[in-house]
Design brief:
Length: 137
C-alpha cells in the first residue's frame, strides 16, 4: 500500500482502461485532491456495509469478473461525487478511468434512483458516508 493513498493503488497487473494523462480544466483548490480521495474511501466503506461479501478494496478496484463489485464501485463513485462533492477528475485519475466512464457510472446510478427500494438504500449509504467522512476529517 502506498503511504500517500487512503486505500491501496490499483494493481498494475489488472488492465484499467486508458493511461492516466488527464488534466483538470480548472485548478483544484488546496486540499481538493486529498478530500476527494477521503470522500471516495468513506463512500466505499459505506457501500461495503450494504455489500458485506465485498471488501472495501474490491469496491474501490473491482476485479474484472465481479459485476457486483463493479456496481458497488459505481454507487461509491456516485456517493463521493454527488453527495460528498469529491472531484470527478481526481477520482478518474486515481482509478485510471476516463471521465466518460465515471460519467456513465453516475448516469447508471442516477437512473437506479427511480426505484424506491434503491433510493432508500442509497440514502442510508449516503448518511453513512457523510458520517464516515466527518470522522476522517
Amino acid at each position: 500500500m502506498r503511504d500517500d493513498l487512503p486505500f491501496p493503488a490499483a494493481p498494475s497487473s489488472i488492465p484499467c482502461g486508458r493511461a492516466s494523462a488527464r488534466r483538470d480544466t480548472q485548478p483544484s483548490p488546496p486540499g481538493a485532491h486529498e478530500f476527494s480521495l477521503l470522500a471516495f474511501e468513506a463512500s466505499c466503506s459505506a457501500v461495503a456495509d450494504s455489500f458485506p461479501h465485498l471488501a472495501v478494496d474490491d469496491i474501490a478496484y473491482p476485479p474484472p469478473d465481479w459485476p457486483d463489485a463493479k456496481a458497488a464501485q459505481q454507487i461509491a463513485l456516485h456517493l463521493a461525487i454527488r453527495e460528498l462533492q469529491a472531484r470527478q477528475a481526481v477520482l478518474a485519475e486515481q482509478l485510471d478511468r476516463g471521465r466518460s466512464q465515471i460519467a456513465r457510472a453516475l448516469k447508471i446510478v442516477g437512473e437506479r434512483m427511480e426505484a424506491p427500494e434503491f433510493e432508500r438504500a442509497y440514502r442510508a449509504m449516503a448518511e453513512n458516508a457523510k458520517h464516515s467522512l466527518e470522522d476522517k476529517a
